[in-house]
Write a structure and sequence with these properties.
Blueprint (H helix, E strand, L loop, with lengths): L27 H21 L6 H8 L3 H7 L3 H26 L5 H17 L2 H10 L6 H20 L4 E2 L3 H22 L3 H22 L1 E2 L6
Antiparallel strand pairs: 1-2
Helix pairs in contact: 1-2, 1-6, 4-5, 4-7, 5-8, 5-9, 7-8, 8-9
């Protein structure tokens, strides 16, 4: 009878590397240290690529000891995850701020603001965005990506629910399509375009596409009675 080998019988189990930071900076000095480490990480990533990136190189670029860096991040994977988490958080913050600032605006204006906020956040430093896309393959970031998408989706639902000239049913599905289209297309643009004019044209084209979709998907609200 053929034996089935299980993980806990004869095969050694390799523990997954810890991906959470060891501690969260609370004092201004600690925050500045982590900021320097993050900036150094991006610089080394862009100059050496994810495969040749080491904690030693990052520490040297940041001007801190490896021991100091390990006080915050137990390994390279944890540092990479933390950098991606901050990056995605900044993108989501930009979109949420744009949505809050355009609540109650006509759908075309609101849509343009949403699209521009996301694309500009992703392309303001396109080389860094491209490098982080490549580096993300080195660590498990599905949870971070899903959480960011959820924030973008929620902000879009609120924005589209507030437009005075159109309503959407179901608004959650309409918002899902918009965010999926914008995030997916922007990744392709980041990975294939470097010229600022080309990226600006992409942003304008993406905005026009989303406007057209929302115009087609909208149920026009009745105007005030005469």
């Amino acid at each position: 009878m053929k034996q089935t080998r299980t993980l806990d019988s004869h095969m050694p189990v390799r523990p997954r590397p810890a991906l959470k930071p060891r501690k969260t900076p609370r004092q201004a000095r600690s925050t500045a240290t982590v900021d320097a480490i993050f900036e150094a990480f991006v610089q080394v990533l862009r100059s050496h690529g994810p495969r040749r990136l080491t904690t030693t190189r990052v520490a040297e670029r940041a001007g801190v000891s490896v021991g100091t860096m390990y006080q915050y991040f137990p390994n390279k994977q944890a540092l990479l995850r933390a950098v991606i988490e901050r990056y995605l958080g900044e993108v989501a913050d930009a979109v949420e701020e744009a949505c809050r600032g355009h609540m109650g605006r006509p759908v075309a204006v609101a849509s343009d603001a949403l699209v521009s906020a996301y694309v500009l956040a992703k392309t303001k430093d396109v080389e860094t965005s491209r490098a982080l896309y490549l580096a993300a393959a080195e660590v498990e970031v599905t949870e971070l990506v899903n959480a960011t998408f959820a924030r973008l989706h929620e902000a879009t639902v609120r924005l589209l629910s507030s437009t005075p000239d159109a309503r959407f049913e179901p608004v959650e599905e309409v918002a899902f399509f918009v965010i999926s289209a914008v995030t997916g297309a922007t990744r392709v643009a980041v990975e294939t375009k470097s010229d600022r004019d080309a990226l600006d044209q992409f942003r304008l084209g993406m905005a026009a596409m989303c406007r057209a979709f929302l115009r087609d998907a909208a149920i026009v609200r009745a105007g005030p009675a005469d």
